[in-house]
Amino acid sequence: MSARILVVDDLAPNLHLLQVKLQAEYYDVLTARSGHEALEIASKERLDLILMDAMMPGINGFEACQRIKNNPDTWHVPVVMVTALEETKDRIRGLEAGADDFITKPIDDFNLMARVRSLLRLKMTTDQLLSHTGHTASNSRTLLEQIESRPGRILLIEDHEKHAKKMMNPLEDKHKVLVEGDPVKALRLAKTGMDLIIVSLVSSGFDGLRVCASLRFSEKTRDIPILVVGDPDDETRFVRAYDIGINDTLMRPIEIQELKARVTTLMRRKFYADSLRDNFNENLEMVVADSLTGLGNRRYFDRAIEPLLDELDTRDTPFSIMVFDIDHFKRVNDILGHPMGDVILKEVAARLVSNMRAVDIVSRYGGEEFMIAMPNTEEADALKAADRVRGLIAGSPIYVDGQSLIITTSAGVAQVQPGENLRDVFKRADDALYRAKQAGRNKVLPASANRKAA
Question: 150-254 maps to which CATH number?
């Protein structure tokens, strides 16, 4: 489905002209002839962007925009104010009403489409963030406002001191702005964690397009938003910049409120994307990590040993698993309580992981049971490693609320056989663990002994 754009203008020729231009770019266009009609459509339809004429009879564009931004169901829809008003105070009025951007009539096609593309990408990122966090537009405003309030790091690549100061000064009240006129130094600086990069296309000392291309080529900077600044009659270079992958453009002479509006939109996208990525990583960690011990969980272990099973089948590379279980853990919980039991679980987990090799896969498989896979290890060597770790756990007390406790573990060890799946080898190791428990606990037994007995 195409992006849905609502065009609002009380003059039919203006409305029709914008509709034709946007439909030529394959957008789904809705129209309204008044602020009141725009509010009604916005309350009923799914919209991705609104182009709003500022001066209309009845409810003007400023008021309509303010109502849309105050509505918990529509506040996140980007609004572009379309106006013939040139004065700064009118642009400020639009921004105060909540407008995300503004375009001055007569409308330049290139400028219009650049604004539309930039804000539609913002809307898409916002929607992704909301869907991944489980929030809706109506209950997520506080979440997104917290994200937007962050100060950011901006790199301004400009070698003209006067031009640099004009852009730097109005942004420094909220963000940290670094200025660099040397493109080589700027590219190094860009890799130190920037949230936005502003590149001059009118510098006599460097090629701004080449700088943009280098930023997009580098893995460390390719996701950072880029705003380019140039002369309005240099459309060819702007087109090339968009082909390279920049995010937005700013025409000279620079109008301070427009600069702030462009920067705010790009920073929001960056912060939203960062939050989306952090949320995804957090969810992924929750899926594969045990929240109490920090070890991988059962799902993590099952996935992590898949390459080992493949290597066993294709290259006959041996590996073994061991199943550890804390002795008398139910009694510990019953006597000392679950909080103390959690402390013991965490300490045992820490001793297991700190005394195994870096290549070994250590997980909490459930309850007081831990599973370890040892790549490129036959059962006899795994048995020695398991018994060494068992001795280390039993040989040093665990301190819980000032109490010194001797905690022991039992383990079963099994080498994985060709063609064997995890369930089969786990059963063999678990049977060995059961025999270790039956034999008095604080022991490690091999699964092979069970086979020989059979």
Answer: 3.40.50.2300
